Amino acid sequence: PGNSASSPWGSVYASHFLVEAGKNGADVPEDLLKGALSYVRQLLPLMPNDEREWTVRENMTLKAYASYVLALAGEPPLGWMAHISEHTSSLRPSGAVFLAGAYALSSGTSEPLKSLGTSSPALREGDITTLESVSRTDALKLLMWAEVDPLSAPAAALAEKLISQARKQAWSTTQDNAMGVLALGKWIEKTKGARKPFTAVLKDQAGNEVASFFEGQQTSLGLHDIPDGALFLSLTGEGTAYYAWTSAGVPEQAPAASSSGVSISRSWKNRKGDSLEPGAALERGERIEVTIKIIPAGAVRDLVVTDMLPGGMEIENIKLSGGTEQQQPARTYGVRAEMRDDRLLLFIDYMDRPLEYKYLLRAVSRGTFTLPPLAAEGMYAPDINAVTPAGKAEIR
Q1: Residues in Cβ contact with 322 at an 8 Å cutoff, skipping those fewer than 6 apart
Q2: Distances (CA, A) of 25 to 20, 73, 171
Q3: Where would I find the beta strands (DSSP E) of 116-158?
Q4: Longest Cα pair distance anywhere in the chain, in angstroms?
Q5: Among 40, 53, 159, 360, which one is most buried in terms of CB atoms within 10 A?
Q6: CA distances (Å), origin 220, targets 94, 103, 178, 213, 245
């Protein structure tokens, strides 16, 4: 937001979405798609900004992604694909998959995909700019197989692996979710004709039917519909049914404080600039200056910090240029603040040194409230995260 320059990688991603949408029945305006693909073609001769290894990798991976999107649209840039093939050592994991996918689409065979089983999806230094992850690389591989040979054994193995990752909540970013859902959705759709019908009946301990499930029909159960005790699933028909049970909720106990790759802290001051001790009683109507300190262990990109408010408090000013007159202004370059009803969100584009952010709260309702933990997480690198202890806030 607020930038005047285009985002090459984001634009290819958006173009990918438009092509997929158009191929699957959505009414995508022709001029919009034509303009997007024209932009993607213009990226192919784009040179890297400098000769650093990560910059070259980013540039070559971008070209591979662009080639795949153009091939998906029926316009494979064979000359540029040959050029990228001569520089595969400069491709990141996703780049290798995109290039193989472009060749598979242009040839109509799965032969270019067979070497992907040995490619490593491990991250390397500086690869965060193309949003690499193990789950997304697996999803991209399945997406390529689903396009040219969805009934193959590698496609089935990748689908099983992705589903297992999803059940273990290993899809950690929006990229993992987007590519995972796209790949599995396409694979399920293209293998539908190979499935055989079945009927599955869920029964309780007494043998009474709780629910029936049929191939192609979606059935859901509410918790109030499920009896106590063991449940049994019986199957009739030629097909095979796969089932799983998933439950989720909010833990009663606050998470333990932790820090990985970044440390965070939060402090409060009153109108006079005096520090407020954790749990100290506040007067209704009191104004509180909040200071959030963020210290990265190294360079960090796309960090989101969440400061959830205790009940009884409201945000009065989401950004201060500084604290009291005696203090230096807070460094807020590259930080975007967004206010919600119950929290302040900070989106930090890039940071390689400590940062302080200040804003104002107002105590508006009497009571004793839980003060939720302050939390931070890398949006595309979830291994970078931190959470502080929870506390209490009393407003008299």
Answers
A1: 328, 329, 330, 358
A2: 9, 14, 27
A3: none
A4: 78
A5: 40
A6: 36, 41, 23, 9, 12
Please give the structure tokens belonging to residue 279.
Answer: 């749990």
CA separation, residue 337 to residues 4, 193, 333, 341 (Å):
19, 49, 11, 13
Which pTM value belongs to this model?
A: 0.72
The two three-digit tokens of residue 153, written as one number: 């054994």
The pLDDT tens digits for 202-224 are 899 898 988 888 766 666 777 77
**CA neighbor of 144 nearest in space, from 31, 67, 49, 238:** 67
CA proximity to 388, closest of 281, 275, 290: 290
- Whether residue 287 contacts residue 270, with contact meaning beta carbons closer than 8 Å, is answered with yes
CA 2/CA 122 separation, integer angstroms: 33
Q: Binning pLDDT at 50, 70 and 90, where does residue 141 land?
A: very high
The secondary structure of the chain in percent helix, strand, coil, rounded to multiples of 5, reads 35, 25, 40
The H or E element spanning position 82 is helix 78-85
Where in 107-205 does DSSP place strands (E)?
A: 198-203
